[in-house]
Structures are given as structure tokens and as C-alpha cells.
């Protein structure tokens, strides 16, 4: 094994003894968040997140397999020139229909340039090739649904006939797509093997014409919580994986790797409240791999999971079980070559990021993407797995030229995080990290969506309809019922229903989420059921409307008037009524109400909004 310093010592000795600790889990049920998630930097909301491992060496050729510019998608290609001479670049696109010429440009030394791919091609399948006269670094960012989600990945500087993608899930509401780019002139035959926790499954097989790109939905071949992929080709290609969840409420992407390794470094990771971090290990080999994961935090090293990953299988590990409430980096040491990725989710899976990390340490790292303008955050994560402290200095490269970035001293076996917004405010920020000793580095970027669309307050699909005609017709309630869920439905004593009742499939205990960011206005007892169960309500001012989330279990201690809530944050759980009673009011409303006769002026019918969300 190639393991630097203190990390990984005696890892394999402890592997077999600790094999019972294996947590073969993925696509987990989101942990119940009991407190507001941490935020920082320039952005007030985190609607999306992207992440990418740093690049050790600039190159003259870059390939970015993923991309889409149709159907409300945005794709941006970022080119960083960390060198001392101007870089003349040529960008070309491979689509489902063939090759398309892109921009030709000159990128000044110590600067970065950004290109909107939709200005050159409109297609659901767009890969990018960048050719430069001198060494540059390239990344791609992609957004959808008005920037409600975003994905990003560093390009690859070499093509290969074999690619490995550790992460993937096709069960539940998850989608996993493998994207193959053929920038060459000749057709390439491609086959895929899908590796799950139970074993291997045959995946797609295809012939990809020269100058084109293809996308493959793995759900057509296997339904599993854990799906890794091995791509084999008759010629040289580039490969990425895109994964979506929650009806494309979030997305992640990561470039494939061309070779397994016995050591992996992943600088990013967080298990603070509202965050999840998972390490995925794929063993594409023919012998079992004994693995040990060491966890490096801001305050020092912690022991992580140990396991034996069978040949042709994949395993997933919940890092919060070993390092709760930490900013945490991971180092994986294995007895046989494996492929590793790390997935981070935040805001109760409102957004996600993913990266395969690095197999080597370096004193210099380059990161092309970054933004610290209004509504954006950019963080650099640096981890030192060695035995000696290292000094770290960051130079920032913007559209206006270089700027001085953050610096610090990083102790042995520790991780350090820099908020680039503390150093510069710019919509284009690339980074070069210089360290006095070998380190690993990643970048995490977060931002606000552009349309700020509300989220559904409970997960769908729903058990029963909530419109008047559909709820009467569905047959769940008898004719003349006083329990119909629609707005304005008659109640006992001529009272009318002030909201709608939403029945999540999960029933009692289903998490209830804030539809938008806001402030708690009122909390308290809503009503007591005939069983004696007390139900509660949370009134939240969301700015353009006030929402009453009612018939909840007893509330968490932090849910109090004046508390801020983030979009997608869990604010309570459905009570034994197995429904969320939801009301909407005009801005400025400070209490919920029961009403008779004509609708009060401050009451809003929520039916149309909820139909749009479900």
C-alpha cells in the first residue's frame, strides 16, 4: 500500500477483526434533522451544490463527457490558465447527432474564462473537447430547473478504453446515467458491467459513432441501491456518471477513473447537522479487497470503517457513524486496487455533491471553477495525511487577473477549509493551491436557485387526492363526509375547511419540510384528537405568503417563534392523523384561524400551488 504518514498504519491488520462493522448501505433514509443546517459565505440559501477534486497538472487536451443545453438545462465550461503565457484554446462539441464547432479564444495568463455552451449548440447530449496551445485546467458546471439543482465535474486530460464509476443507484427515486463521449473519427464498441452488492450484471452494449456522445439509463438493466460501473471500449473514449434523486430535486456528477488504486484521498466531507457523507468503494478486480478508511477532521484523526469488499462488488459506508458532527476528509487504504467516490448531501437531500478524490498527494493543485458573487459560496478543502505540518497558500485567478487568496498552517492528520468569499468577490474565481508538503484538495461550491420555486412540504406520491372533485370521486370518504381534504370542504357545525389535507405515503412520522426559507411566526397546540393525541402547528412567514403546517407531532425545541428556517429543512413530523393539514395566508398574517361563511381576506386557497408541486 502507498499510504503517507500516520494514515493507514496497521489498517489491514485491523480489517479482518473489524469486518463485522461493515455498513453495506446506500440510498439511505435521510437522517431526521433537528436543527437548522449551517450556512456560510455570500449565499443565504443552498439550493444546489457542486464539487470537484483538484487537478495536479495542467494539460493541453481536456474531455468533458456530460452536458445538456436543451429543456431548461444550462452547461458552462470553465477554462483556467495558471501558466505564464496566453493559452489559445479551441472548443468542440460532440452531440447525439455529431460534432459541432465551438468557441476559439485566447485565455490570458493567471486568469480564467467561462463559456456558455448553449450559445453554440442546443442538444440534450453535449460533450466537450478543449484543445489548448499551453497547459490549462477545465471543468464543467451544469444546472437545471432554474438552478434548483447543479452538478459539476473536472474534465479528464486523457482518453482510455476502460473506465470505472464507483457511485450509482437505480432504486426508489434515484436515476443513474452513464455518459460516453467519442471524440474520435471512428466508431467505438462499448460494453458495461454493473457491479452491485450482490454481484455483477450485464449492462448496456452499443456502438458509438465518431464525434458523438451517448447516454445510458442504468435502471433499464438493474434496480439496486448500489450500482458501480465498468465501461470497456474498443477505442479511446471519455466517461462520466450523472445521478439524480427526488424527481430531479438534486443531482450529482463525477468523471470516471481509468484505473483502480490502493490509496484514495477525499478532502471534502461533512457530518454536521443536516449533512450526510458516504464513501463508496468499488472492487472491479478478481480478488477480495481489504479496506480501511481513516477520517481526518479539523481537530485530528478518527478511526473509520474497515471491511472486506468481495471481487466484482460494491460497498457503501456512512461516515457519520464514525465521525459525527465533523468537517471530515477520508483516506481509503486497500490491499487490492479499488475505485472510490464520496457523496455528500445537505438540507435533507435538497442538494448533493460527489467526487472521486485523488490517488496521489501533491504540493500544487489547480481548481478551475469557483464563484463568490451574490448568491454563491466557494470553499476549498485541504487535507494533510502526513506526519508533519504544512503551510498552505492559495492564489486566486479571476477574469480580471490574479488575486491573493487565503493561507494557513495545516497540522498532520488534519483538514482545513477556506471560504474564498473572505478573500475576493467575483463571479469567476479559479484557484491554485501551493503547500509546503504533500496534500490533497477539493472545491465545494453552493448557490441559490434563480426561480426560488417552493418545495412540496411532504414527499410524494400522495395516498389520496386533495382537489374537490377528485377527493369526492376517489371513494375513500363516504358521501357527505365532513372529513373531505379539499379547501372549503364543509365541517361539523357549518365551519369550512381552511386548508387542504395532504396524505403522504409514509403516513405518521413523515417529515414535513419548509417550502421556502422563512421565519417561524407562531407555534402551538393545533387540536387534540379523540384519542387524546395532541397535534401541533408551525406558522412560517415565507415572504410572499405565510404557511401553516399543522397536525404535527410535538415540535423540536428549536422550532420557536423568531427561528429562521431554510428551504427544504425539516420542521416537524406528521402526527397520528397521518396527514399534513396545510393552510396559506397573505403576508403579515400572524395566526391560524377557523372560519365560517365567506372566505377571510387573508386566507389563500393553496390547491393550485400544491397541484403544481405534486
Write the layout of secondary structure elements.
Elements: H1 11-17, E1 48-53, E2 59-64, E3 74-81, E4 87-95, E5 98-107, E6 111-116, E7 126-144, E8 149-154, E9 160-165, E10 175-182, E11 188-195, E12 200-208, E13 212-217, E14 228-245, E15 250-255, E16 261-266, E17 275-283, E18 289-297, E19 301-309, E20 313-318, E21 328-346, E22 351-355, E23 362-367, E24 376-384, E25 390-398, E26 401-410, E27 414-419, E28 429-447, H2 468-473, E29 495-496, E30 500-502, E31 511-513, E32 518-528, E33 534-541, E34 546-552, E35 564-565, E36 570-573, E37 580-585, E38 595-596, E39 603-604, H3 607-613
Antiparallel strand pairs: 1-28, 2-7, 3-6, 3-7, 4-5, 4-7, 7-8, 9-14, 10-13, 10-14, 11-12, 11-14, 14-15, 16-21, 17-20, 17-21, 18-19, 18-21, 21-22, 23-28, 24-27, 24-28, 25-26, 25-28, 29-38, 30-37, 31-36, 32-33, 32-35, 33-34, 34-37, 37-39
Describe the structure concisely for a colleague:
3% of the residues lie in helices and 49% in strands. The protein is mainly β.
What does this structure look like?
There is one protein chain. The chain has 614 residues and is mainly beta. Helices cover 3% and strands 49% of the residues. The protein has three helices and 39 strands. The strands form seven sheets. Strands 1, 23, 24, 25, 26, 27 and 28 form a seven-stranded antiparallel sheet that branches. A hairpin with a 2-residue loop joins strand 25 (390-398) and strand 26. The two termini are 51 Å apart.
Amino acid at each position: 500500500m502507498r499510504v503517507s504518514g500516520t494514515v493507514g498504519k496497521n489498517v489491514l491488520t485491523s480489517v479482518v477483526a473489524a469486518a463485522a462493522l461493515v455498513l453495506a448501505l446506500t440510498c439511505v433514509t435521510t437522517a431526521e434533522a433537528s436543527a437548522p443546517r449551517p450556512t456560510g459565505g455570500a449565499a443565504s440559501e443552498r439550493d444546489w451544490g457542486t464539487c470537484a477534486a483538484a487537478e495536479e497538472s495542467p494539460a493541453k487536451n481536456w474531455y468533458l463527457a456530460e452536458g445538456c443545453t436543451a429543456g431548461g438545462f444550462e452547461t458552462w465550461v470553465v477554462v483556467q490558465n495558471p501558466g505564464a503565457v496566453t493559452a489559445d484554446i479551441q472548443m468542440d462539441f460532440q452531440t447525439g447527432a455529431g460534432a459541432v464547432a465551438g468557441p476559439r479564444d485566447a485565455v490570458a495568463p493567471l486568469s480564467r474564462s467561462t463559456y456558455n455552451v448553449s450559445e453554440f449548440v442546443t442538444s440534450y447530449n453535449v460533450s466537450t473537447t478543449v484543445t489548448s496551445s499551453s497547459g490549462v485546467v477545465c471543468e464543467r458546471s451544469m444546472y437545471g430547473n432554474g438552478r434548483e439543482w447543479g452538478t459539476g465535474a473536472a474534465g479528464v486530460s486523457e482518453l482510455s478504453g476502460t473506465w470505472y464509476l464507483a457511485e450509482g443507484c437505480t432504486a426508489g427515486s434515484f436515476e443513474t446515467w452513464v455518459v460516453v463521449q467519442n471524440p474520435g473519427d471512428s466508431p467505438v464498441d462499448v460494453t458495461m458491467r454493473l457491479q452491485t452488492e450482490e454481484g455483477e450484471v450485464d449492462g448496456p452494449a452499443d456502438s458509438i459513432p465518431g464525434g458523438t456522445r451517448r447516454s445510458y439509463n442504468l435502471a433499464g438493466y438493474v434496480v439496486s441501491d448500489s450500482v458501480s460501473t465498468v465501461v470497456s471500449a474498443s477505442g479511446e473514449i471519455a466517461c462520466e456518471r450523472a445521478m439524480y434523486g427526488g424527481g430531479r430535486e438534486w443531482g450529482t456528477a463525477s468523471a470516471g477513473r481509468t484505473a483502480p488504486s490502493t490509496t484514495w484521498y477525499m478532502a471534502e466531507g461533512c457530518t454536521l447537522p443536516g449533512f450526510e457523507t458516504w464513501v463508496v468503494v468499488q472492487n472491479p478486480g478478481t480478488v477480495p479487497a481489504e479496506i480501511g478508511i481513516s477520517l481526518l477532521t479539523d481537530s485530528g484523526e478518527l478511526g473509520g470503517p474497515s471491511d472486506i469488499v468481495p471481487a466484482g462488488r460494491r460497498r457503501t459506508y456512512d461516515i457519520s457513524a464514525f465521525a459525527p458532527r465533523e468537517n471530515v476528509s477520508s483516506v481509503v487504504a486497500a490491499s487490492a486496487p479499488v475505485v472510490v467516490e464520496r457523496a455528500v448531501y445537505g438540507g435533507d437531500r435538497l442538494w448533493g455533491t460527489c467526487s472521486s478524490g485523488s490517488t496521489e498527494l501533491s504540493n500544487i493543485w489547480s481548481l478551475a471553477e469557483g464563484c463568490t458573487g451574490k448568491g454563491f459560496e466557494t470553499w476549498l478543502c485541504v487535507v494533510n495525511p502526513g506526519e508533519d505540518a504544512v503551510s498552505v497558500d492559495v492564489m486566486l485567478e479571476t477574469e480580471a487577473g490574479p488575486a491573493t487568496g487565503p493561507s494557513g498552517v495545516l497540522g498532520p492528520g488534519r483538514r482545513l477549509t477556506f471560504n474564498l468569499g473572505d478573500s475576493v468577490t467575483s463571479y469567476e474565481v479559479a484557484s491554485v493551491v501551493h503547500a509546503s508538503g504533500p496534500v490533497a484538495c477539493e472545491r465545494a461550491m453552493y448557490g441559490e436557485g434563480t426561480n426560488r420555486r417552493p418545495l412540496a412540504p411532504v414527499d410524494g406520491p400522495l395516498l389520496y387526492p386533495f382537489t374537490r372533485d377528485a377527493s369526492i370521486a376517489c371513494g375513500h370518504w363516504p358521501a357527505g363526509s365532513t372529513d373531505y381534504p379539499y379547501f372549503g370542504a364543509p365541517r361539523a357545525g357549518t365551519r369550512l375547511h381552511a386548508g387542504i389535507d395532504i396524505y403522504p405515503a409514509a403516513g405518521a412520522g413523515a417529515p414535513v419540510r419548509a417550502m421556502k426559507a422563512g421565519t417561524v411566526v407562531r407555534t402551538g397546540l393545533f387540536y387534540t384528537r379523540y384519542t387524546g393525541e395532541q397535534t401541533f402547528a408551525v406558522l412560517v412567514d415565507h415572504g410572499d405568503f405565510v404557511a401553516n403546517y399543522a397536525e404535527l407531532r410535538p415540535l423540536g425545541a428549536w422550532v420557536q417563534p423568531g427561528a429562521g428556517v431554510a428551504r427544504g429543512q425539516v420542521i416537524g413530523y406528521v402526527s397520528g392523523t397521518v396527514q399534513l393539514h396545510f393552510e396559506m395566508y397573505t403576508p403579515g398574517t400572524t395566526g391560524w384561524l377557523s372560519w365560517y361563511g365567506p372566505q377571510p381576506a387573508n386566507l389563500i386557497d393553496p390547491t393550485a400551488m400544491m397541484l403544481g408541486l405534486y
